[in-house]
Amino acid sequence: MVTTVHLLRHGEVFNPDKVLYGRLPGYRLSQSGQEMAVKAAAHLAGRDVVHVVSSPLQRAQETAGPMAAQFGLDVATDDRLIEAGNAFEGRRVTGEGGVLKKPSSWWLYRNPLRPSWGEPYEQVAKRMLAAALKARDVAEGHEAVCVSHQLPIVCLRRFVEGQHLWHDPRKRRCSLASITSLVFDGEDVVRVDYAEPAGHSENDISRQQAGS
């Protein structure tokens, strides 16, 4: 039985101070981000979506809204879809005053393979897989949408494709409001599709300092 789980990254966030917001509350979509959420929903119009579930963070919940409304569904919440934990929350990473320029922060970069500055990649991938499998079970034979964040989605994709989890953040294929789709045949992932209904932003990483 074929079931598709779409992993939708949230849209652009209103972040004038350009801090790494991570799991901090109160970060909402910008006007552009709201438009991205509508485009993502329109991209899946006519599909067999029967379940929409989101990270508990505001930006993800707001991105899930148009999707759920389009299919006449409520938005469920799964804490396992949340952004990865990060020691630099609330601070600038690059640019003036960025933590990369402060020797006191360099210790946190000692192990980029884990990574040492935040939640381990393996832990992120496994909780995301558990959330995706739950969504697959709920939508068995149909389609589900899980709204999450950049790093968790990338970790899950790399995990199911058998790639090593450490990677160059500048090369992540997960733009704002992009959709990474896991196609299951029974319990096995047989294909991974990718779409950018809101278009690709060249400034995706620099604007979204949270990498989320």
What can you tell me about this protein's structure?
This protein has 212 residues and is an alpha/beta fold. The protein has a single domain (2-13, 29-85, 119-200), classed as Rossmann fold (3-Layer(aba) Sandwich). 28% of the residues lie in helices and 18% in strands. The protein has five helices and six strands. It has helices at 31-43, 58-71, 121-138, 150-160, 204-207, and strands at residues 2-9, 49-54, 75-77, 143-148, 179-185, 188-195. A six-stranded mixed sheet has the order 3-2-4-1-5-6, sandwiched between helices. Strand 5 (179-185) and strand 6 (188-195) form a beta hairpin. Helix 1 (31-43) packs parallel to helix 2 and helix 3 crosses helix 4. The longest helix has 18 residues, at 121-138. It starts with a strand and ends in a 5-residue tail after the last helix. Residues 205-211 have low confidence and may be disordered.
List the helices and strands and how they pair.
Elements: E1 2-9, H1 31-43, E2 49-54, H2 58-71, E3 75-77, H3 121-138, E4 143-148, H4 150-160, E5 179-185, E6 188-195, H5 204-207
Parallel strand pairs: 1-4, 2-3, 2-4
Antiparallel strand pairs: 1-5, 5-6
